[in-house]
Amino acid sequence: MIPPDQVQKVVDELDLGKIPGVGKVSLDKLNSAGFFTCLDIRNSDYRDLIVRFGRLGASLWKKSHGIDERQVVVERERKSIGVERTFSVNISSFDECWQVIEDKLYPELESRLARATPKRNVIKQGIKVKFADFKLTTIEHVHNQLDLPYFKDLLREVLERQQGREIRLLG
């Protein structure tokens, strides 16, 4: 989220390659002409941009001034549902991990899944582990129903990668 009084500053610093409709070829042409950020465009003459870049020039001028008349679309298809916990004190054993999954993560996952998809459609199940050294590992397998005992097998498999490291996050 960008506070209203910071919008123009953020837009000004935005690299032109981040603007929808500016691909590699267009970006190369813009950069060759000395345009790298929205501030470069904002400080340019509108007519000159149209002469040099056509509709792209007009579009960039508007966007660099914070004008974008496209409709905001907030709906999107959910592709995954997950639950995770970062621990204030690292854990290390299978039993500690299993207790967190069984008591906290799995019930919350069941609840989220029921709210998101009443038919409880599942394609894959997985576990994510972040170790104390901040290395992240995940494991997932195709399994078409939410199944607590199956997570026990996944946990055993993912902890084979532990190599004595403590666990900072489990999901």
State the secondary-structure class.
alpha+beta
Overall average residue pLDDT: 91
Q: What's the β-strand tally?
A: 4
Strand order of the largest sheet: 1-4-2-3
Pfam families: IMS_C, IMS_HHH_1
InterPro entries: DNA/RNA_pol_sf, DNA_pol_Y-fam_lit_finger_sf, DNA_pol_Y-fam_little_finger, DNA_polymerase-Y, IMS_HHH_1
Keywords: DNA replication, DNA-directed DNA polymerase, Mutator protein, Nucleotidyltransferase, Transferase
GO biological process, one term: SOS response
Kindly summarize this structure in a few lines.
Its EC number is 2.7.7.7. The chain is an alpha+beta fold.
Report on this structure.
There is one protein chain. The protein is α+β, with helices and mostly antiparallel strands. It folds into two domains: 7-64, DNA polymerase, domain 1; 85-170, 2-Layer Sandwich (Dna Ligase, domain 1), CATH 3.30.1490.100. 43% of the residues lie in helices and 15% in strands. It contains seven helices and four strands, in the order H-H-H-H-H-E-H-E-E-H-E. The protein has helices at residues 7-13, 24-32, 38-42, 46-53, 55-64, 94-116, 148-159, and strands spanning 85-91, 124-131, 136-142, 167-170. Strands 1-4-2-3 form a four-stranded antiparallel beta sheet, covered by helices on one side. A hairpin with a 4-residue loop joins strand 2 (124-131) and strand 3. InterPro entries: DNA/RNA_pol_sf, DNA_pol_Y-fam_lit_finger_sf, DNA_pol_Y-fam_little_finger, DNA_polymerase-Y, IMS_HHH_1. Pfam families: IMS_C, IMS_HHH_1. Its EC number is 2.7.7.7. Residues 18-68 form the DNA polymerase IV/DNA polymerase iota-like thumb domain.
